[in-house]
Records
---
Amino acid sequence: MNAVISAKGLSKRYGNSVAVDNISFEIPAGRIIGLIGPNGSGKTTTLKAALGLIPFDGELKVLGKDPRTERDELMKDVCFIADVAVLPRWLRVSEAVDFVAGVHPKFDRKKAERYLAHTKLKPSMKVKEMSKGMIVQLHLALVMAIDAKLLVLDEPTLGLDILYRKQFYQNLLEDYFDENKTIIVTTHQVEEIEHILSDLMFIREGKIVLSATMDEVGERFVEVMVPAANIEAAKALKPIDERLIFGKAIMLFDGVPRAQLAELGETRNPGIADLFVATMKGTYA
Amino acid sequence: MNIAWNDNAPIYRQLKERVVGMMLDGLLKSGDALPSVRQIAADYQLNPITVSRAYQELADEALVEKRRGLGMYVTDGARDKLLSSERERFLREEWPAMIERIKRLGLDIEQLLRSANTGSAQ
């Protein structure tokens, strides 16, 4: 019962289409996991299942509980910000704080108010007067003030400018995250969060195609600038991706020892974005 | 705050090198406190594990020490220790490579040393 989430053979179909296809994974505590996948790959469906928002097939435990039958109990320790999160337009900041204080036993009103004091949000302000960035700040203020064990962020920074995006993660790291908490985040802006993550999960067409700690990712994947003379030798090691730049081939390898690759050309660690593109090739074809 | 990390070394090592650089430059002196792991993680947008690992390596090399409940502090003599190990590394790795390159480019070492002493490039 150390795993925050453990899934075995988790599946979800909508009519004839399979959104999540028999996936299994475990997420330990104290991690920041990036769940990365193209549009329609099953990220949100997986998260919805974990939050008890949809029925599903297979086995799924969140903090040791079944989200289908123990959702109320579970929600005391789980928080969620969705890209489609909607707050009523007429709601005032103060009313939102009152509401959460009323329904959530682990909500710390002082903490929420302290956080709000650092923003331009005023207690009397209504949601309809707020920019997209301000609405996310309100959400974050409410969520960070809850002492939850698991925080699920589904495209939390979608549509925000870079200042709000940076601020968002800075707040999470400074005032929220610690080794007893776990954060799962999905985003398309992978470059921005890659150093924040401790674990990476790639999901494609309802299946998990990569699940590793960032340390493992750093060890497994190496990109090599291969000069023309070494291209044949490099190809024999079966790169998972290659592209040509200035007559040199940039090849991406999975699980080939770095020392061996260094003999073929200059090596470097690929970014998550490079890995993503290589792994997801042909998704929309 | 923004730093450009390069793709050739793990981030924790680059962070460690940055702290080492600050010690060598005298920006961090013996007895100075390092910023908290949380602060660095938030400012540089890094996973706290990455920051802890950089600090741990510095502690392993006795360049910083943990004071219970207070955080990490630069140890006495950290700069001297660094200077001697960095000097040794320079002589072992960088200097031979530099001599090799000077020869390959057909430059005159004596000439270079003289101009280095007078402070001009020519």
---
Amino acid sequence: MKHIISALVENKPGVLAHVAGMFAARAFNIDSLAVGRTEDPNLSRMTIVVLGDDRVVEQVRKQLAKIIPVVKVQDYAGQPVVARDLMLITVSSTPEKRAEIYSLVEMFNGKVVDIGMKFMMVEVSGPEEKIEAFINLCRPYGIKSVARTGTIAMPRHATTEP
Amino acid sequence: MSPASSSADSAGKSTAKTGSATSPRTGAQIIVDTLIEQGVDTIFGYPGGVVLPLFDKFYDAPFRFIVPRHEQGGAHMADGFARASGKVGVVVATSGPGACNLVTGLATAMMDSVPLVAITGQVRTELIGNDAFQEADTTGITRPITKYNCIVKDIKDLARTIREAFYIASTGRPGPVLIDVPVDIEIAKYQTDGNEEIRLPGYKIRTEGHSRQISMAAKAINSSKKPVVYVGGGVIIANATDELRAFVDKAHLPVTMTMLGLGSFDQSRPESLDMLGMHGSAYANYAVQECDLLIAVGARFDDRVTGAVKTFAPHAKIIHIDIDPASIAKNVRADIPVVGDAKNILAQLVKEVEYQPRDEWFKKIAEWKKKYPFRYDNNTPAIKPQYVIEEICKQTKGEAIITTGVGQNQMWTAQFYKFKRPRQFISSGGLGTMGFGLPAAIGAQIAKPDAVVIDIDGDHSFNMTMTELATAVEHNLPIKVCILNNGYMGMVRQWQELFYGKRYSKSYLTNPDYAKVAEALGAVGITIDKKADVPKAITEMLSQKRPCVINFKVEREENVWPMVPAGKSISEMNGLDILESLA
């Protein structure tokens, strides 16, 4: 099963290497890993998507918490979350195909961010399934390259507020 | 003073006094002053290029300073010192090769939860990443084998980082911490601003066990008909052996120990089942496999203990008490986990448990103990290694501090030396580091100058670090080394005999004359090849004030029994027929 784990870490050199190294050393599989700053300049948030049964993910959570610069670890499994990926995708596109592809982009609330005689670069964000669906729909045109951020997530506050 | 400022949460900060110096100090001076402030009196270290400014300060600093012959030896010495004393061991090395040579020692300490602080020099900050002379990515190399490590790139952080290192190394589940200090930081000057308290938002230790979990554990113990206590090194680290005894006495429970747990419970007592696991006692393994409740305290269900995990303690409910939440349910399910300090939890537990006679269970255990004690055939002309250990145990009245190498020598020591006290048995358990015995004995002897310290070693383990005998001679340490010399890497040979059709592939080397080696290095050297000479030689060794090495030429192909083959359940022991035939 897929778990989204969020780790708040101290903004120090070596923390990413420590986390990545721990995953490799303990043979845990990372599906995706996204790191970025938070509202506190001393802290970064790592969002890690892990595949594994509950016991494996429980170990992942504990081993992460054991890393000293890791301040807080949450497993979002079983609670409502907003989870998003961001993707840039370059699709082969002759001028004749532009309208067709553009209609797909609109359906997915995407954006065309670059365009040439033979390609279109599109920005799409959303849940992972939506990103995957867009990639699949682009395949017939020819995909030149894809860059994805990996999932970031946040629990829905509405459910926790009184 | 407000009440809040004296509350328990300031405990960690008590070690974090701010520097009182009024004039700017160099980084090297800050390191020395902070080490003194942390109560360090002994340092193991080897000089080199980028630690010259620091060693210049060591020239007249008030430390007992031990220079090993190789940095690995220094790390093991600091480890032996820490295990014997319960204090933090400190080791210093230069950059590149110096730091790399610490690796085995750090990994050994990490696996066995030993508090060490390693300080390594690093090339100048501006050269880092340039493949400079004697540069290695020390923090990168040691990250997975330390509890924490970091490089200090700003002198403002130096004192605080060292304080954090000691705090992290010695609290919670202890472990080694490495601080990498570039040479320009050692030279730079800094006037303390008094704001150098430890700051570790990600480091939380739960010491008090959850009271509901403890009550659940007590209830399970009180209703258990066939319980077994399974004690690991955590009980020794937590200084909880008095609490363990009180708990065992009150509830009336049999106790088995891991190798690192030896010494936590007096093995001469009837409740002791001695060591369990791969080379553990048959009675411990049978008891664990049949028990209805397993009470694990400060143990981590290592594969050498559990054998096949799926069939380990199949009928038991499992209580797991450990300070490291990640150890709980890692290898084996825990029905009642209790996270916290073993000392606190056992003290709580003792209040809630009741005495149960459990006559049938103890009767069954007594039968196993009678049927399968650790035995060997001593009716041979050859010197049996087990006999040497029994004789050492007898002559030292079971009171010596014993270190070992790794392999058969270690397993026989665990089986045949009967330990009474914590911190008496010092051996590399998790990592299984050959060559650990001699340097660890040196560290232990420095920590306990009045104790009898004996390294019971294998010939090939001794070969790995025997150069450290010169260190023992230099410091007039009366350590003893008993080499059980069978001319083989004995445990490798045993596996080759049992599982590889006696094809003894590369498992023996040409050994030197150890007595001559000892004499050449300034120690006493004795060779014993007759069984009748064994007791006399040990008596003589114990009377020596100088380091003393005895080369016991023992039976070459003796095996360690019982033995659980890899991947089998711990009740599926080989060699029980041999033990029975010796009855």
---
Amino acid sequence: MKEITTLLLPRYLSFKNAGISQDGGNRRVRLLLFTVIGILFWTGVFIAFYRVLTYFRGIEEFGDILAHKLLSMVIMTIFSLLVFSGIVASLSKLYLSRDLILVHSLPAARGSIFMARWLESTIDSSWMALFFSMPVFLSYGIVYKAGAFYYLTAGMTMVSLCLIASAVSVFLVLITAFILPAGRIRSLFVLLGLIFVVALIVAFRLMRPERLVNPESFASLILYLKEMGTTGSPLLPTTWAFDCLSAALANLKGKALFNLSLCWSCTGALSYIIGWTADLVYFGGYTKAQTSSARLLVHKIAVSSHRRRLFGMIPRPLRALVVKEVRTFFRDQTQWTQLFLIAALIVVYLYNFSVLPVEQAKIRTVYIQNIFSFLNMGLAAFVLTAIAARFVYPAVSCEGEAFWIIRAAPVELRQFLWVKLFVYYVPLLILVELLIVISNILLQVTPFMMVLSVVTIFLVTPGIIALGIGLGAAYPDFHAENSSQSVTSFGGLFFMLISAAFIASVIILEAGPVYQFFMADIQGRRLSNLQLGWLVISFVIVLMICALAVILPMRLGERRLGN
Amino acid sequence: MIELVNLTKRYGRTLAVDHLNLTVEKGELFGFIGPNGAGKTTTLRMMAGILGATEGTIAIAGIDVAEYPEKAKKIIGFIPDRPFLYEKLTGMEFMGFIGALYGVAEEDFPVRAEELLQRFSLYDWGDHLIESYSHGMKQRLIIASALLHDPEIIIVDEPMVGLDPAGIRMVKNIFRGLADNGVTIFMSTHTLEIAADLCDRIGIIHRGRMIALGTTGDLRGTARLNEGDLEEVFLRLTGSGEETL
């Protein structure tokens, strides 16, 4: 045990010393920002659940069934998230971390190394789920007027659930890493991404949320109620956790303690099983993971004459930067998982528009279609911000320790940053324009709204990308083990806040005059001179904001990176 | 060829390089030695245009590095102490990338790159991703890429780290040959035998200041030693020997 705590010591000390490191000031600001956002989110979850549960309690008999169904769904969702994040965390902690070579060179038992890494990955993958599930259980406790026994039980159940999920994840990772051929460990991320995307799309399709607005689709209320009252399999830890919490809420101490012991005995048994499995397969899998990773696609892509002509227009040093950027991006298999997730996000996004029951709305269809189209612009821009936060913001930090090559090369930092902007701008502009055009076609909006959406996105996209590149350059982290995580840094959060403010300002500036124009069109009248002036001024300001959103962050990034 | 005038670098309150003045002639192989934290790497990085100076000027072949960094970098080959590279590129792709950045003519590139990869025993690895290279192979690739554009000046920080004995001998021969052909080499090293064997002149930097400059014989004189090798001279001048005793 002492060995395990000693192995965990560097992590604890790094965390403790972070405040006195050179980055201490930045960290404090980041911590403050995270705390504020965390508290806001936490409070939001609490208010939402408290209101829903209070409403449910007001419904005779059926309300309790709904509240319990919600609890079981919450537990199931948390458990699934814990398993997925546990797989990612344990894969990284056990096989890919940079410090593994040092750790394995230490005179520590392999079993202790494994246990320490497992505990670390459990904490990494669970703390957030644990923290944000608190307001849910708190609201249940308050609404059902539960006593201290419930809160104690809820805490112990959640800790046990985290350990079970993490043990299941690590078991899957241990076996997969052992089976996979050497050099394919990193491909596991790709496999995971694919599985997750398929599961997400299938689950979404099975849920068919559009039925909720169509009461006629429910054949029988009794059948529906019966379905709602069904509990999960008695062999699943989520069922024990649910039974434990619902019993504790009803102050049935015997039943609650029985289910709690089921949870903890399962935790104990799984800990033993993974320890035993690790003894057999961990070191073998780890050894294989140390060989260089094999390329998933090794064939050379022939450069077509079109592409050669296209790239031929760019000066050679800049072309070299573009080619390097594209190659390094696509050869990093960890990026693929994210690409799959984005693909799933887009499928779900467009699917939502295809099933939107606009014709059933009581308000005039043309009106609501165009309102949706207007909101869609903002939504698409926020989707772009999320994608940019994951790919564009870390683009400069992705250079990592190899950034010296750029600094030593006869290339201006300005050129380097503009190449980055260009590389991300083209595909992302195509992606967002496609999103906008397809969703507008599905909504059957007026030609005016179609043109407005396409033009607005065309103007906003360079600003969002430039904010990502510029702020990424202003707050780079070349030493990060995983540069994509830099989005959770102060600069990353700053980027998301500024980007959201930028999109909101454009949408707000356009909303007023567009509404006037639209209503005039519907009512078949002409715009007054005042309204016309308002329209022109608003769009000029939008143009200016979009231009500033490109120029200012790029200049800031260049200046800060140069220093 | 290289001229440092009052070169100074401060990191907050720490004075890393303190009013350094130095001239290195064309075709000279200059050794730059000093204890850990003396300011060697900082000086080299300022010369390569990677770091900005707090005070003073650097002229490379008459080009002010602060004023025309890109122009100066075109004629410099910089070799850092740690071989950080783009792991997801192949060796040949990396050479192509560097060739394009430094303006190596497209028609000359294949022959030049192949010749360098062969010279550094990397030709068979040219199509492998850099992430599969050993430390020494990465170091050799960096040196090969730094020579791709026929630099007039090579700035090199600890060139022998991670190289095997054959690699060390190869690099020594290459550097000597380049210097004989008029290339100026500014080399920082901790390996004093290499500095003594290879360099025309040696500068010793301590706490950011140049405390001795000249041939091994000159340095011996500065240290007031009648005999002894560079190691003894170094220990005497920097006081490191007394500290260890």
---
Amino acid sequence: MALKLDDNVFVTKLDALASWVRKHSLWPMPFATACCGIELMATASARYDIARFGSEAMRFSPRQCDVMIVAGRVVMKMVPVMQRIWLQMPEPKWCISMGACASSGGVFDTYAVVQGIDRFIPVDVYVPGCPPRPEQLIRAVLDLQEKIQSTGTIDGREFAKRTQYEGPGALVNDLPRESVVVAPGDFKSGGRVRTLA
Amino acid sequence: MTDFIALLKPTFGDILKREVFRDNVRLIVPADAVKPVLKSLKEQHGFDMLVDIAGIDYLEYPGATDRYGVVYAILNIKTGERLFVKTHVNDPEPALKSVVDLWTGADWLEREVYDMYGVVFEGHPDLRRILMPEGCESFPLRKDYPLRGYGERHNFPLLTRAEG
């Protein structure tokens, strides 16, 4: 007996279905340590309304979240905390590095501030800006949705391939000593361009 | 402002010096006398509040003869008089007597000076680092400590996506 199904059925891959479902209900973990956190709150508020993109359910327990938004500078003492929170989040999970400080240390090139969280945890989307406008964070959420749709799998196979370090190249301290770098002024010369001695 | 040199002279002799900048009165005391002087100021002269303890590194400071300065800011609550008691310590083992037994509030202040400058406060009940992570071995506010540190900020394990 032939049923007339026509428009009521369409065929897709299970991976695409799972990704489509996941991308529209991202639950952010707000790891807000500085002024970017304020923009993150503004993004969640009525004017910018991140709820339009399905990621308004911010939870302060990492066990209930699937996207960590690191908003602000991360200092040495905070790195173990950040890594632990990241590990506490259930799979599948993603990470947005929001703002100049989280992405590269920003203006805080000092002994205590980590020069980019991607040296220690994997990052999926970077948001430039100091701090970024809420629209930029929304753009990052849209980019993350696109990434999830195009690479996502139902059992998270795409994560298993990412076994390599994904952060930047040589640290400033690893560069040859003769390299000239632009640095915040030092108290002896007052200059900004100097060699690594 | 009371002349504290005159008040303290019978007990401590000529070891104290005085500096004045506008209404800011400083008493410069040798390191071994700083605790008796503070005790006397607290118990005989009514300086019952310790406002702050600050460290200074005088490396390459013009005219400086000692490496570190430690400044105690104290306040007489009754008269509103403020006094800064300043002392100097030197490498290799900068050390002072702790004043936690005089003012309990000195606990964290001394820990901070220790954390940033490495000045050891003998007799402190719990002289641990307060701002820097435990296990850190340098004193970041010393002038010979490089701005970017010695790589401590990148001395952490890496989590890749596969193990997360």
